[in-house]
Amino acid sequence: MDWIREIDLVSKKFEETFSDFTQEEMNFKPGKKVWSIAQNIEHIILLNSSYFEYFEEIHNRNHSLPKIEDLDTKAQESVIALKPFTGRQRLKRTNTWDIWQPKKGFIDRNILRDFEESQLQFKNHIKGFEDLLLSETFIRYPGHLDLLFKLDDCIEFLIEHENRHWNQVVEIGRHSSTSNGS
Question: How many domains does the chain have?
Fold first, then answer.
C-alpha cells in the first residue's frame, strides 16, 4: 500500500466533501449517540496524534516495548483483537476510549484545517521511517499498554480507521443535507 497516497486520498475526500459545509452542518448530529462530522474528524486527529510521540521515539530509537518473549505473536494477536472494530466496513462497534473522545460541544469549522495539518504530520512521520524495516519494527498501542503492533500494521490500521470514519461522516452528511432541506 502506498501510505502517502492513501492519506492524501482521505484528506482530499474530506476537504472536497465538507469544505463548503457550514459550521452548523459540520456539527449536526442525527442522534444523541452519533458523532457529528466535526467530532469524527476530531476523533481521527486525536487517535492519530496519540501515536506521534511513539513515532518520534521509534525514529530516535528509544521506544520502549513490554517485556514479551514473542513480539511477533503478540503483535498478530493485537491486530486480530482490534481489526473488527477498526475496519471501514464497521462490522463491530465499541465504546471509544476516553483519550480519543471528541468534544461534546460545538467544534469550530477550522477542524478541517486542523485535520489537514495532522495528516501532514502523519505523512512526515511515515517518510521519517524510510530507513527502518517496518515489518520488523514494533509500536505500542496508546490505548492499552499490553497491545502492540508491527509498525506497518499500525500505519495501515490508522489509514483504515480514517476510511471507517469517512464512511460514517458520509452517512451523517446525507442526514444533515436532508434535515436542512437541501
Answer: 1
Nearest by Cα to 115 from 155, 176, 165, 57: 165
Closest CA to 122 of 165, 156, 80: 156
Question: 4-31 pLDDT, tens per residue?
Answer: 999 999 999 999 999 999 999 999 998 8
Q: How far is CA 24 from the centre of its chain?
A: 23
Model pLDDT for residues 38-78, shown as the tens digit of each residue: 999 999 999 999 999 999 999 999 998 878 888 888 888 88
Residue 143's alpha-carbon distances to 47, 67, 120, 129, 148, in angstroms, are: 9, 18, 23, 22, 10
Q: Domain with 155 in it: what CATH number?
A: 1.20.120.450
Domain residues for the domain of 22 are 3-179
